[in-house]
Amino acid sequence: MVTQIAYFSCFFISASVLLFIIIYALNKSSIRGYMVFILFCFSSLIFTIADFFSVLSSTPETALFFFNFRFIGLAGNPVIFFLLADVMTSSTGRISITIRSLPWMIPVLTQIMIWTNSYHGLWLSHNPEFGYHDGLMLPDLSTRKPAVWFHLHVFYSYFCLIFGMGRILYSGIRNNRLFISQMITLFAGWLFMIGSALVPTFNLIPGLRFNVIVLGLAVSSMFYALAMFRYGLMDIVPVSRSLLIDCMEEAMLVLDSKLRILDFNPAFSRIFETLQGYAPRTGAVLPELFQDLAPNLISNQNDFFFPLIRKGKTDYFEVSYHPVKQSSDSADGALLIFRNVTDKLRTEYEIQKLKSAVEQSTACVVITDLEGAIEYVNPAFTTLTGYTFEEIRGKKSNFLKSGTTPPETYQDLWQTLKAGNQWRGEFHNVARDGRLFWESAIISPVRDSRGLIHNYVAVKEDVSERKRKEFQLKEEASTDGLTGLTNRRHFDLILSKLLERSKPVTDTMVLTLLMVDVDDFKKINDTHGHAVGDIVLKTVAQRLIQSLRTSDTAARIGGEEFAALLPGSGIEEAVRIAERLRLAVKGESIRVNDVELQVTVSIGIAGTDSEKIMKPDEILAHADEAMYQAKRNGKDQAVEYQSIVGRIKSA
Asked: How far apart (Å, rounded) are the C-alpha atoms in residues 637 and 521?
C-alpha cells in the first residue's frame, strides 16, 4: 500500500509538473528554442504516462507493451537535449535541417528494434519478468538481458547528453562567466536526468522496483525551465563571442604585432579565399597583398578605406581599427573590422548626381512629408517664389495659395495622393512680392523598400506665360476687339445655352433680349470719319454695360448693332432697362476733339414665349423686328415685340 501511494504520488507530481511546464512554455513563444524545449517535456510526459499504464496493467503481456511503448518518449530525449544545446549555443541556421535530422536515425531504428525484437532479439535477448508487488505490475530488471542494439542505443544516448552538456558549459565559460547561475541550473538539471537514467540502465540498485527516471525527467525539466524562463536562456546566446563574430556581416581580423593572424570570422574567410585562393589559418603571417595595402596596420589609429579587386571589379571596404592591449600602453595587436561600403559609395554617388540635377534644374522641386510640411526645395523654387528654404522649412506647401484656385483642385489632389497615385494639375499661386503666377505640377508619392509612402515630391513648372497666351486667345475668340464686349459668335453660344435651360411659364418670361442699333451711324461715319465712329461705338458700349445688371450679357453683334441678354427678367423689367439705356446714350453728348455729337439708339425688346421653348433665331428675329419697328416709329425709342404682334392681330 505504501508503494502504491509513493508511486502514484510520484506519477501525479511528475505528470503535473511536465504538463504545467508545457502549458507555460506555450505562452513564451518569444523565447528562442521554446519549441525544442516543449518537445523535450512532451516526450518526457509520454514516457511518464506509458510507465503509469504499465504498472496498472492486469497482465504481464499488457505491462510489456506499455513498457516498450515508453521508449517512444524516452529514446529521442537525448537527441532533443542535444538539439536544445545547439539552440542555446548556436545562431539560427548554423546547422542545416538535413544535418539536424541525422541524430534521429538511431532513435528511429531503436523503435523498430523494440517492436520487432521477437524476430531478431537484437534489443533484448530476454524480456524482463513482470509480477505484482504491493498491487502494482512491476518489472524485475535483473531478469532483463540487453542485446547488441540496446548497448549501442545506451552509448549513443549518453554521448548526446554528455556532448550537449559539454557544449553548453564550454560556450558559457568561454564567453562570459557572469552567467554562472544559468550554467549551474542547466548542469543540475542534466545531472538529475543522467543520474535517473543510470540507475535502471545499469541496475545500480538491485531490487529497486521504483522507476526513478519518471521523477528525474520532471526535475530536470524544472531546472531547464528555470534556466530558460527565469534566468533567461537568451542571455547565454547573445554574450557568446563566437556567435557574435560568426554572425557579423562585416569581416573581422585579429592580428598580433608581427601581423600574424590570431583570429578571424567567416566573413573575412570568404574575402580571403576570393583574393588568395585558399583558406586563412591562425598563426599564419598576413599575406603580402594585405600588407601592401595597409603597411602600418598595428600603429594606425584611424579608420581608413581599403580597396580590393575581386573578380575583376573593385570593392571598397571601410576598416575600423581597434588596438588590442594587455598590460602595456602600446598595442600588442589589432582588431580590424572590414565593412563593405561599395554599395554605399555607389548609392552616395547616385544621390549626389541626382542632387546636382535637382539643384540645377529650372523646374521647381518640393519635397514634403505626409502632412504637406516642406522638407526640401531647390533653388528654382526660390527664384520663382522669392522664398528661401530656411524661411519656409516646415511650413505647409499651401502657403502660396492665392485664393483663386478652386477648392475642388486641392480636394482631388489629396484624395489622389492618399490613394497612392500620382496627381497632375495646375495652381494659381502668389509669390512673396505679391505677383500671381501659374504652376503646372506633377506630385508623386515616394515609397520605401516596403512600399510604404513616407514623402511626396512635387515637380512644378512656371506656366504663367502660357496661361497668359491662353487667356488672350480665349478672350480674342469671344470678345469684340473694338468695344471689349462679347462678340457675335460667343453671344450666340450664350443665347443657345440660356434657351436650353429655359422653361415656358405661364405669367413671366424667363429670358428677354434687347437689340440695340445706333441711329444714323452711317451718316456719322461719312461726315466725321471712321475714327470718330469707333469712339461713338465704344461710348455706346460703355453706357450699355453701365445700364445692365451684373448677371446680364452685353455684346456687339454687327457694325453699329448691339445686343443684351437679360436672364431671369420679364418684359416690364426689360423695358425699364432699355429705357435707362436709351436715356443714358441720349442724355450726354459725345465730344470728339472739337466735334460734339448727339447720339441716339433704337431698341427692340423680345422675350421667350410663355408656351414653348424658343430657338435662338426666333427670339433674335423677334428682337430685330421690334428694333426696326422703333426705327420706323421715328428712332430714339424702345419697342417691345409683343406690342407689334398685338397691333397686327387687332388690325
From this structure: 16
pLDDT for position 591 = 85
CA-nearest of 268, 294, 295 to 281 is 268
Helix (H) or strand (E) holding 462: strand 453-462
134: left (phi over 0), alpha (psi -120 to 50) or beta: left
Cβ within 8 Å of residue 235, ≥6 positions away: 179, 182
Residue pair 577/568 in contact by the 8 Å Cβ criterion: no
Contacts with 23 (C-beta within 8 Å, 6 or more apart), sequence order: none
Report the relative pairing of strands 423-430 and 553-556 from DSSP bridges.
Answer: unpaired
Q: What is the mean pLDDT of the chain?
A: 80
Give the integer Cα–Cα distance in Å for 461 and 441: 7
Are 486 and 479 in contact by the 8 Å Cβ rule? The answer is yes
CB 619 within 8 A of CB 611: no
The Cα 441–Cα 21 span in angstroms is 64
Please give the Cα distance from 271 to 31 (Å, whole number): 34
- Length of the chain equals 651
Mean pLDDT: which of 227-231, 312-316, 582-586 is highest? 582-586
Cβ neighbours, 10 Å, residue 56: 16
545, with CB counted inside 10 A (0-12, 13-18, 19+), is middle
| Strand partners for 453 | 447
Whole-angstrom distance, CA of residue 493 vs CA of residue 77: 94
Per the model's pLDDT, the better-predicted residue between 545 and 646 turns out to be 545
pLDDT at 37: 80
- Per-residue pLDDT of 137-161, as tens digits, reads 877 777 778 899 988 988 988 888 8
Q: Which residues contact 540 (CB under 8 A, 6 or more apart)?
A: 516, 518, 562, 585, 599, 601
Work out the widest C-alpha separation in the chain, in whole angstroms.
150
Query: How many Cβ atoms from other residues are within 10 Å of residue 299's Cβ?
Result: 12
Rounded distance between C-alpha atoms, residue 94 and residue 167, angstroms: 14
| 94, pLDDT greater than 60 | no
pTM of the model: 0.40
- pLDDT band, very low/low/confident/very high, at 506 (cuts 50, 70, 90): very low
- For position 302, what pLDDT does the model report? 61
Angstrom distances, CA of residue 69 to CA of 37, 290, 385, 473, 633 = 22, 62, 86, 97, 128
Convert the pLDDT of each residue in 367-377 to its tens digit: 999 999 999 99
Share of the chain above pLDDT 70, in %: 81
3-state class of 434 per DSSP?
coil
246, 230 Cβ separation under 8 angstroms: no
Q: How far apart are CA 108 and CA 101, in angstroms?
A: 11
Beta carbons of 136 and 4 less than 8 angstroms apart: yes
User: In the chain, count of helices (H) and strands (E)?
Assistant: 25, 21
What phi, psi does 375 have (nearest 5°)? Answer: -115, -20
